[in-house]
Amino acid sequence: MHAFRSKVGCLLYLACGTRPDLAVAVNRSARCMQQATRADLAAADRTLRYVADTANFGLRYTPSKDPITLSAYIDSDWARESDRRSVGGLATRLNKQALTHWRVSKQIVIAKSTAEAELMALADHTDVVMCMRILLAELGLLQGATTVHEDNTAAISILNDTKYDGRTKHVDYRIKSVRERVLARALEISYISTDLQLADLFTKPLPRATHDRLAAVALNGGNIDLQSNRRKSRDLATIEEE
After folding, report:
1. pTM score of the predicted model
2. CA 97 to chain centre
3. Distance between CA atoms of 144 and 34, rounded to whole angstroms?
């Protein structure tokens, strides 16, 4: 047990500091700190092997004279966990640089649909985006409406529909909290294809090609290239147990 906790502690340091590509795997391991099994220990070892294979990975920022603009990506994976609670993910960056903040969080309420899970993720994570806007304003970097990229059209439609709908009454306060920020022009919810959704990296294990493509942008910045070749590194999210 002590060995497992030590390994996960080291991995948490990396996942929270400079390695967003480790976030989901380390988050899953961290949930087992009290009752780790041999399978959990094997998973931590696989993550460590992935780290060893990608020791040169890290956040890379490049100088830019462009005005600093904050953007965010928010996503949720619906009911994949054994207790049927969804996992929300957040990624933020300035201009098209590497990520400045990322977050994996398990929702405390069970969502009844994908749209509801996405709405709860938006309500939870836009709080962080608003805090970042305040920090930038204090530094003299005033922002226009911050673009929040969301890949669920149903959630966007609900936010844009101001008419009462009894089917969403139970999450009404969450909808209104996000809608008020949109009406105040602090946020702008923009649709993005799932293939381009950076926050997908923080909601669930992904296929190797998808993981590597999103991790490349999270670590190095730039745009997501759907035609890019798959990296030759091991993907901790899809490696089968050895």
Report:
1. 0.86
2. 16
3. 45
